[in-house]
Amino acid sequence: MGCQEGMGRTKRHRSKNRHQPNSLNLSNDPAAISLKQWLKSHEFADPLKLQLRSFADTGRGVTSTKSVRPLDVLMRIPFDLLITFDTIRKSKLVGLLTRPLSIQTLLALFLVKERHKGAQSEWKSYIDSLPYPEPGLPWMEHPDEIELYPEDLKYLARNLQGNFQECLESARKALAVDKGLEYLLEEPSLRWAYVLVNTRAVYVDPEYLMSKDSSNVELLADAPFLALCPYLDLINHHYLAKTKATVVSVEGRAFYELASLSGFKRYEQFFISYGAHSNEKLLMEYGFFIPGNLFDFVRISLQEILDSVAVSLDDRQYKYIKNYEFHADDLYVNENGASFVLKAILFVGSYPNIVDYASYIFSNRYPNDFEQVLSLSTRRLLEFKLAAYRKDVKILPKSNSEVMNDFLRYRVQYVERLLNLLDENKLCFS
To answer: What are residue 264's DSSP bridge partners?
Structure first.
């Protein structure tokens, strides 16, 4: 029922830059040929002659047989070839729902249903282009292996597992499944679809969808902001990617258009950006990471500050910090130095006699000697994390996934780089 290998994403943990002209043509792959023919039969615009190629570091990617100039249109896909909430409400899936579901769960169920149809599905060419089984992600590993993850990655893995279980349970509660439709709620099938939606869906403006048709909105537990976009979802991610996606009208028909905001050489891989994601997020949710990622950081916990930095908080200081509403992601060090919240907490912990902390923090006017205090505290935190990361590398067995082992080694190198920048006075503490 479809291509067993599909044209799946591959792990890209060794990718160092986006310029990778050496590649192997994949356009003769039967699934690629079928997908392209299906799209073109529905007015898919391919002005730059897009081509699938296998690149040394990223695996399968998309390029062009022509050079790309800034503002060139890479592809223009008929909007009705995107799988959106509009697609779902026109399908027989609607008649099975007894309560609202998230757009992600609805898209996943739709994929399961269409894959089960096989040759009878009008989406067969697209379904055949999807990898089967789903790509392995760190949160999908055996529980015994996840138990060996560092605490921060273990926490993320369990959250992602919880998200999938929530999807599965909500689907089982919402679907009135008759005999012969039990396949919709089988865990392996739904996990396959869930992973593909989570790793491939693009953002669409929910207001645009609702302006076309607001019926069946009661079936949604959230906004219909996700869609699956054939062929576009074959393009890999890079944090430097600069593209623009818009809905345009051509002779009265809506198209989803992707344009490049930068130039590319002939056969050079081009990318889209999934967002400003750290390597931690890319690894856990997409199964790869990118050395040199500008959005990378070293996460710091409040307990690690207390354990590694020579501060002792009295009741007033501790209460001020606890009352200061911040998210765990707000505490970090990256190549720009300590985050705003980390700087504030280190300031409070280092100056017990100051009465009005807020006047210093929110004006960003700290005492003259605080820069030296901040630099020393940041060094202690990074050295603390470096020791922990080195320990993580030794604990995780070699039998675990290659990408996880590579990521743990990369984290060590990243902290070492931050310490070197600190030695060279290149971390920002102003």
So the answer is: 68
**Cβ contacts of 25 within 8 Å, gap of 6 or more:** 51, 52, 53
**β-pairing, 332-334 with 337-338?**
antiparallel
Q: Which of 406, 362, 416 is nearest to 386 (CA)?
A: 416
Whole-Å CA distances, 293 to 328, 334, 429: 20, 11, 21
CA dihedral 264, 266, 267, 272 (to 10 degrees): 20
Vertex 226: Cα angle to 26 and 187 (nearest 5): 80
The list of the chain residues with pLDDT below 70 reads 1-23, 325, 398-400, 428-430
Q: Which residue has the tokens 């607001």?
A: 214
Backbone angles phi, psi at 219, to 5 degrees: -85, -5
**pLDDT value at residue 18:** 43
Residue 359 buriedness (CB in 10 A; 0-12 / 13-18 / 19+): exposed
Among residues 330, 328, 368, 373, the alpha carbon closest in space to that of 350 is found at 373
Query: In whole angstroms, what is the distance from residue 318 CA to residue 194 CA?
Result: 42
Which two structure tokens, joined as six digits, stand for 227?
Answer: 């869609």
What distance in Å separates the CA atoms of residue 26 and residue 148, rounded to the nearest whole number?
38
Cα 284–Cα 289–Cα 291 angle in degrees, nearest 5: 150
Structure token digits, residue 265:
């050489």
Among residues 85, 112, 80, the alpha carbon closest in space to that of 190 is found at 112
